[in-house]
Each structure stands twice: as structure tokens, then as C-alpha cells.
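Database export, one record per block. Field names are fixed; values are copied verbatim from the stored entry.
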Amino acid sequence: MDNIQEQIRLIIFEEFSKLLKNIEGDFKKNYIKKNYNFLLNQLDAKTTANMVFVSSFESKSGFAIEACAKRIARIRYGEKNVPTIVNPNNLKHTIDEKYINGQIIVTDINIEDGNLKGEISAFRANNISKGKGKAKQTSTVNQTTIKSLLDTAKKYKTPGVIYTKPVDLAFFDGVNWNIMELKAGGDLDSSNAPSNVEKLLTIYTGLNYYNTKVFFATLYNKDGEGNTWTGAVKKHLAYPEMFLIGKNFWEYILPKEIDFEEFTKIYKETLSELDLNNRINEMIKECLR
């Protein structure tokens, strides 16, 4: 295994070790809570314990993957281009990054203003996809039309006042800033799609930097790699321009020497090294004793 492969293996190993310790730490407590759910009283103890693990893993693995993605992006783009505090306009602030988990943007745009939120919501709603079948038109929220939100932002500028907002992943590629809403689950249901798109557009508006690209990204293609992704967010963002799905996401941030297939191989080997399956079984056995 060469140096870059080893760096990626180590990132996955470290972040998923933290994840497993976190799950192991509160597994029994979560199992007891689940037993209070009378709706599940027809399920046996082992089935309930398995449900607890899946629920816990899905809810917490997103943070582990975000951490992996940020650290992997730093291999490709460099530490300074994947900062904890994203501040392309060099705004003055007193935020100490050692107290921040993940990444945040800093802005002097009042992104908490209800009127700005309304304008962003209207922009999304007025540009949703229309029609059905062959007559269907894609959303017109694309990398060009979102520039109009930068003009909108001017009305809400508050010099000297700093606002912050978390961002799943942000990095500078040498030409553009790239900001992403990253979903570990592969999609959103239709009811959550509008608010998540508006959150992403709010981050873009707050960043207030012309050379910025926006993406909705997923860790895997729920429809299978090579197939057209059919997620609910396509109603609200231009597809495929505003999306990085599965393989396309990983190859956007992986070092150029490592393709998606090599990455998935490293990932599987590393989880085997962590003995994931046996640790899950031991957690469940311990809980049921």
C-alpha cells in the first residue's frame, strides 16, 4: 500500500474507530429506551437490538463520513484550502476554530433575517422543475441563476456583525469555492428536500463569494452506480449540474491517484480490519445478557 492509500486507510480507521466507540458507549442505554416503545412489543430482543444498532449507525455515521471527506479533501486540495472556518472575504472575527466541530462559514450577511429567508425560499419555489415525462423541465436553480442571490445578499449586509452557519463540506479548488450538502443516506424524502435546498442556498448567499459552486452530494447512488439517480431533490436543483452522486462525489475529492473503485476497496478492507461485524455481534450479545 503506497503513502496516499495508507493516508486514506488511516483516516477511515480513525474516524470509524471513534464512531464504533461512540455507538458502543451508549448502545445499552438506547436499547433500554427502545424497549419502552410499546409499538415494538411483538419483536424479540435480538431483533430490537439489531434495530437499535442500525438506527444508531445511520444517525451517527454521517458525522464520521463528513470527517473522512474533509480529511480526504485536504490530501487533494491542501490543508489551507479545506479550512475549519470558511472565510473567503477575510472578514474580521474572534472565533477560535479549536472549539468547532466540522466546518462553518462566517459572514456579514444577516442570514437569520426572516425577509432574506423568504427571498431564498421564493427563489427555490419559483424555479422548481415542471411537467412530467418527456415534457418535464429541470429546475432552473443552477450554477448561473444562483448568482442572483448575491445581489439579494447586498440588502442584508451588516458590516462589523458576524454570523456563522455550519456547512457539511467546503473547499477551494484553486479557482472556485465548493460548498456541499452531504447526505450519508443517499437521498432525502420529498418533505425534507425544500428545507435542505434552502439551507444550502442560505450558506451560498452567506458566503457571498462570486466564484462559488454549490452541490447536493450523496455518499452512494441509491439507484446503483451507473444508473440515473432519482432523488427528490431533483425537483429543486438542476440535475446533473448541481449534484455529485456517489462515485462522482468521491472522485471530486479523492486524490487523483485514487479512483472510486480503489477507494471502496480500501474502505472495505479497513472496516474488516476494525472487525465491524464481530463488534456489532458482541455489542448485541452483551446487551442481551
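Remark 1: DSSP finds eight helices and seven strands in the chain.
Remark 2: The helical segments are 3-35, 45-77, 114-125, 148-154, 193-207, 247-253, 260-273, 276-288.
End of record.
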